[in-house]
Specification:
The structure holds two protein chains of two kinds. Chain A is built from 29 helices and twelve strands. By secondary structure, chain A is α/β, with parallel strands linked by helices. Chain A is globular, with a radius of gyration of 33 Å. Chain B is an alpha/beta fold. Chain B has two domains: 183 residues, Rossmann fold (3-Layer(aba) Sandwich), CATH 3.40.50; 82 residues. Classes of the chains: A alpha/beta, B alpha/beta. Chains A and B meet through helix 5, helix 6 and helix 7 of A and helix 10 and helix 11 of B.
């Protein structure tokens, strides 16, 4: 008898590895700890749903930092509202504000949450009331009116079957809707929803599209495509759904993505937001806004004053966390047990995560698995220790590879249009390495340094970072230093890091990192820019700098000796890594023609064009070769003009920076060639899988090629090409020198920035076409 | 027999159309202000022969079922009666749908007109070419002018065009602009308020004569009973159908806006059902036909809604 494999064990880990329960995913199994914020929010919802408070609409604002459980609280509220008794069950809508605008939010509301039939049904209710009003006074039709009001008859059907004057009924409806919504266009469009031939056109317009000509004919000529119109439209829907005393609950999660420093709303939009809140109140609807605290600032005081309650989500306490662990285990039928955790390990965990719910849950998941794996034969003896917490925190807390984070940093910098250099020592001989150096302003060493670090769990981690910050800040008068931690920061070290760096450390979070880093960089570089503008601010900055330098110097002296060794090993490691990556690529490129002599393989056009486009863009920027050739050509044709040509070229090559730019151009060409060779080689060895899809191994190889390109590319100071983008060949035309090609640096940058991503997609597309 | 049936048999409830069915002239009942409107039309138009000098736009306004189409059909028949064979009446009522844009609707009407006039052998190949050219160039003003000047005028003919129902006031305005000599546009709209508000503009773009607006209302207090009487539904000695009492009709029409179309539909439906069910009866004692009561009408209404009362 053949041996059968044991069935895979059921995953009994009570903690969610991703630690992100979106409000949509809430179910009976979702564990919610009744923190003061949860209790308060639930009581507010209860008050809102209570019949005695039916005349009052409300706005609740939920604020809290990343990972503190705002979304969880929103989910709790919505579920609580949905679970009310059937008769009073409110219509509950969740809008998740990805980086977005009010327009997108509105489209999410009406496109995703509220469907056409749903909205039509609300309009139908208004229509039923309109018809009922018309029929109720006549003894002949009063019974029909009653049936309409109680929803037992469909008004459209009644009008059709009884041959009532449909146009008069619909016009009455239009007037009612116009009065309710205070908007003529909505009166028309919502009414048209009930007319079969017009319903699609009306719905299209309601969902944000340009109005169809049949709507334009009826006076609707503007799409709901501005912040103001979108907010007004949201208010209209609240009024529609508040009809017949219905409860309407709308929650907007991550409001900070709609209104933030990066995405400052117009004053008109703020006014309309305020108006929308008033409309919600009038419609007896509940509006729940959740997000980072700054969204309230962006909305302004007038809006804040209209918010009934602001609930701050606080970090989890040790007691909260213990309850969470116990209830999570109880959910799996184990009873309310804390094992394999202890009160001490929970306390340590809370300290390490600063009570951040998301991080606590994520670590709990990893720790539980680690503890059980350590005692596979006797899970009951599994224990989570403080050492294990530290170990797991280092391994998993970041939950992202350094390469991935670097890629995101590169995207942010490119997005802001900033140039940068990798691994720059601002203060030679000391540990003043900036993982990314973003030069800014005219002074030497003026700019912003980004320092990347893994988890900061003990004193030595903290000291090393404080040293780096100190040395970096000492390197120049106008230097900002920002710490990015891919992992956790023990709460005890936060004050020191705050003091040493120019901003509060950014603890990497995949959902928020890009936006946070952008905002911090913008703020710092904005400060640097402002500081150069007027004399008084410059003096103020001078004093600030002097004070800061003094403090830096003091710290520098204290730490210099301790960190010398670490400095050397760190720099050596970084250099050797770069050299190794470059060497691998170069050897691959040089080995190919001699050793393998593989037959040439033409890349599929969709892939080849990625490389040729990039190469052409570089040619357009670096025209030194063409300029030299033009110069020699002139020499052969006309000796007089040849003098002008020589002078022109010499003038262009006068700056020494041109030569470093040429170096950058050369390495870019090499990188491009070797990357293309690598892709060529990938095709040569590629074997389609049985389904026609690439085997995982081939996909991995392709991913590795792209990553290699990215890794090297990010070290190349592309911005130096600016020095040669003005150099162009001069054609000699009589006595006139003519500029042949305009500079195209921006286009080249864009092509090189996204090259690996596009190549990756193009390769997969090409093999998909082979199927 | 069903006293509310409009001949010819089978057409049932459709609007009266005396230019196609001369016997319909006898079925008009002075309700809904339609009689006044018809008199207004005749008075304002005056001598129909003047249509050869000035075209006209006539617009009937009122909710569904109030009798706009019947009124306009009567107006068309009257013009035809005045001018004889020189008058051509074409109905475009079904030549476009409300879902279409104003431009599409207008183009459909003009395209249909080319076919219709062609069928009546009023167009030469050159006419057809010119009219199609105007259509292609989206210039219907020129198109209608061409029809007026080069198709109708040489024949001393007048063309009465019954237009599809419209909701858009700009569409009415356009036809006012295109009402060239020899052309009469008969338009109808349910959007009375919008058209009335736009009326000064419509008057302004119309040719020197004034466009004619006919307002058709809902039933007044006595209109319902007047209609029943006109159809002889009140006769207790009628052969083959029961009667309905005045009180019953007044209860049905009381305290709500009712159109003649709705009342006609109700009574026609009730009688049709009675006929089909063989439920017409005659009292043995009096020899009179039975009565359709308020309850009968009410039950019929509920049955139409798929419910039992």
């Amino acid at each position: 008898m053949s041996e059968r494999p044991e069935p895979a064990p059921v995953d009994d880990n009570p903690f969610l590895p991703m630690a992100v329960a979106t409000p949509r995913e809430f179910d009976d199994a979702t564990v919610t700890i009744v923190t003061p914020a949860v209790a308060e929010a639930v009581s507010l919802v209860d008050a809102f749903l209570r019949p005695s408070t039916r005349s009052v609409g409300n706005v609740i604002a939920i604020v809290g930092e990343y990972g503190t459980g705002k979304s969880h609280l929103v989910g709790t509220l919505l579920r609580h509202a949905r679970d009310t008794s059937e008769g009073d069950r409110p219509r509950v809508v969740l809008l998740e504000a990805r980086p977005t605008t009010f327009v997108d939010l509105y489209r999410q509301l009406i496109g995703d949450e509220l469907r056409k039939e749903d909205v039509s049904d609300r309009v139908r209710e208004f229509y039923a009331d309109v018809i009922a009003d018309e029929l109720s006074d006549s003894p002949f039709t009063t019974d029909i009116a009653d049936l309409l009001r109680t929803g037992q008859l469909d008004p459209v059907d009644v009008v059709h079957r009884l041959k009532l004057a449909e146009s008069r009924c619909l016009d009455s409806l239009r007037q009612v809707l116009e009065r309710v919504t205070n908007n003529a266009a909505f009166g028309v469009a919502l009414t048209l929803l009930l007319r079969h031939d017009f319903a699609d056109a009306a719905w299209e317009w309601l969902t944000g599209h340009q109005p169809d000509q049949v709507l334009v004919d009826r006076g609707i000529d503007t799409a709901i495509a501005t912040e103001e119109l979108a907010l007004e439209a949201m208010g209209v829907l609240a009024l529609l759904y508040g009809h017949r005393g219905r409860r309407f609950v709308v929650a907007i999660d991550e409001m900070n993505k709609v209104v933030s420093g990066n995405r400052e709303p117009t004053s008109r939009a703020i006014d309309m937001f305020q108006r929308m809140m008033e409309v919600f109140a009038a419609a007896q609807a509940l509006l729940v806004l959740a997000g980072l605290p700054e969204y309230l600032d962006e909305l302004g005081s007038a809006v804040r004053q209209r918010i009934g309650r602001i609930i701050a989500v606080s970090p989890l306490t040790v007691e909260n966390t213990i309850e969470y662990v116990k209830r999570s285990q109880e959910r799996l039928g184990r009873g309310q047990v804390l094992d394999p955790f202890t009160v001490d390990t929970v306390r340590y965990l809370v300290k390490l995560t600063d009570g951040n719910a998301r991080r606590i849950i994520r670590l709990c998941s990893h720790l539980y698995r680690r503890a059980v794996d350590a005692n596979p034969h006797d899970p009951a003896r599994a224990q989570v220790t403080e050492a294990m917490v530290r170990e797991v925190a280092r391994e998993h807390a970041g939950a992202a590879s350094a390469d991935h984070v670097r890629n995101e940093i590169r995207q942010v910098l490119a997005g802001l249009g900033l140039t940068y250099e990798r691994d720059v020592w601002l203060n030679p001989g000391l540990d003043s390495r900036a993982d990314y150096w973003v030069p800014f302003g005219s002074e030497a060493h003026s700019g912003c340094a980004l320092v990347l670090s893994e988890s900061v769990l003990d004193r030595s981690d903290c000291d090393a970072l404080v040293n780096r910050a100190t040395f970096l800040l000492a390197a120049g008068a106008q230097v900002g230093v920002i710490l990015v931690v891919v992992g956790l920061v023990h709460a005890d070290f936060m004050p020191q890091l705050n003091a040493a760096f120019s901003a509060e450390p950014i603890v990497y979070d995949q959902y928020t990192f890009n936006e946070t880093l952008s905002a911090v960089l913008e703020q710092h570089l904005g400060l640097l820019a402002d500081s150069g503008d007027d004399v008084s601010s410059e003096m103020r900055e001078q004093f600030t700098r002097l004070g800061r330098q003094q403090a830096n110097t003091q710290r520098m002296l204290e730490q210099a000796m301790k960190t010398l060794t670490a400095l050397r090993s760190s720099s050596d490691r970084a250099l050797s890594q770069l050299q190794q990556e470059m060497a691998e690529l170069t050897s691959q490129a040089s080995a190919q023609p001699t050793d393998q002599q593989a037959p040439t393989l033409r890349l599929p056009p969709v892939v080849l064009t990625q490389f040729t486009d990039a190469r052409a863009s570089l040619d357009a920027v670096d025209q030194v070769d063409a300029a030299l050739r033009a110069m020699f050509a002139a020499t052969e044709s006309d000796l007089v003009n040849a003098v002008d040509a020589r002078v022109a070229v010499r003038a262009q090559l006068r700056s020494p920076l041109v030569f470093s730019a040429l170096g950058v151009s050369t390495i870019l060409r090499m990188l491009l060639d070797t990357f293309q060779d690598g892709v060529n080689e990938w095709y040569r060895t590629y074997v389609p899988g049985p389904t026609g899809m690439p085997y995982p191994g081939d996909k991995n190889r392709l991913g590795a090629l792209c990553l290699a390109y990215d890794t090297v590319y990010e070290y190349i100071p592309f911005f130096r090409l600016e020095e040669i983008d003005q150099i162009a060949p001069y054609l000699v035309d009589g006595n006139l020198a003519v500029l042949v090609s305009p500079p195209q640096l921006a286009e080249a940058r864009e092509l090189f920035n996204g090259l690996s991503r596009r190549v990756h997609a193009a390769v997969l597309e090409s093999v998909a076409d082979w199927r | 027999m069903n006293p509310y049936q409009v001949p010819p048999a089978g057409s049932g409830l459709g609007p009266l159309c005396p230019y196609a069915h001369p016997e319909h002239e006898d079925y008009y009942v002075p309700v809904d202000n339609t009689e006044n409107s018809f008199e207004t039309f005749k008075r304002m138009l005056g001598d129909a022969a003047r249509l050869r000098d000035d075209g006209r736009l006539v617009v009937a306004l009122g909710w569904d079922g109030c009798g706009k189409t019947s009124l306009l059909n009567r107006c068309a028949a009257w013009v035809q009666g005045c001018l004889g064979d020189d008058c051509h009446v074409v109905s475009m009522g079904k030549m476009s749908r409300e879902r279409e844009t104003v431009e599409e609707r207008q183009r459909n009407v003009f395209q249909s007109l080319i076919y219709e006039l062609g069928d009546r052998e009023l167009l030469t190949p050159e006419h057809r070419l010119e009219m199609t050219g105007a259509l292609d160039k989206h210039n219907l003003n020129i198109g209608y002018y061409y029809v007026s000047r080069y198709v109708l005028k040489p024949k001393n003919a007048v063309l009465v065009i019954l237009l599809p129902r419209t909701e858009i006031r700009e569409e009415v305005e356009n036809y006012a602009r295109w009402a060239h000599p020899n052309l009469v546009f008969l338009a109808e709209s349910r959007m009375s308020d919008a058209v009335i508000a736009h009326w000064p503009v419509i008057q302004q773009v119309h040719n020197p004569s004034l466009p004619i607006r006919l307002d058709v209302g809902t039933l007044t207090e006595n209109d319902g009973w007047a209609f029943v009487q006109a159809r002889k539904g009140d006769r207790t000695d009628a052969l083959g159908y029961p009667f309905v009492a005045e009180e019953t009709i007044r209860r049905v029409t009381a305290q709500r806006e009712l159109s003649i179309g709705e009342l006609h539909d109700l009574l026609h439906g009730v009688y049709q059902e009675l006929l089909e069910n063989g439920a017409m009866w005659r009292s043995r004692s009096t020899g009179l036909m039975g009565e359709v009561t308020f309850e009968d009408l009410l039950s019929f209404y509920f049955r139409r809604l798929g419910r039992q009362r």
